[in-house]
Amino acid sequence: MQQLQELGHWAICLFILVYALATVLGIPGTVLTIAGGTVFGLVWGTFWSVIGATLGALGAFWVARYLLRDWVEYKFRHHKALVSFNQAVMQTPLMFVLAVRFAPISPFNVVNFLFGLTPISSVEYTLGTFFGIIPGTLAYTWLGVTGGEALQGGDRLPFFLALSFLGILSALPLLAKGKKK
User: Fold this and answer.
1) Burial (CB count within 10 angstroms: exposed 0-12, middle 13-18, buried 19+), residue 126
2) What is the model's pTM?
3) d(CA 81, CA 79)
4) 35-49, 58-72, 160-174 — which is least confidently predicted?
5) In angstroms, rounded to a whole number, what is the distance separating the alpha carbons of residues 176 and 43?
6) Which listed residue, of 89, 114, 133, 137, carries a Cα 20 to 30 Å from 158's Cα?
7) What's the 3-state SS for 76-108?
8) How far apart are CA 53 and CA 33, in angstroms?
């Protein structure tokens, strides 16, 4: 912790860079988000994690769009799941990204590449990703903050509240799906 404080603003830049690169490489960022809460606190940890995750998601999106798209379209052009995903994106692009991103249970890194294979604009994708991941990022960051406090002998109730918030966010898509039936 002392070494990070000595780095000052460079610690933030390093955190965002590592987070973005990990996301482009497909490495789950959950641990980084929790660490961001421990190191930077709830507000700044959430903010820096959202920035890093969004930059990484955009990088993965571009990798899929410009390096993998032709090959994937050739191999999986008629795959039912990809066709359905493309249709949903074309109907309401920004709202679809927001809906997918809002629930922290969707596989973030897989979704980054999938969106790159669709015709969605990078602006709609980036906006939807940035705003859509805030609730889940907040929940994981809160876990980092409260988990660190609980491990140091502090009150455990905030940790369980953060865990409950994450559980509720994760269950929302299932609850919404149940209401549609």
Assistant:
1) middle
2) 0.84
3) 6
4) 160-174
5) 28
6) 133
7) HCCCHHHHHHHHHHHHCHHHHHHHHHHCCCCCH
8) 9
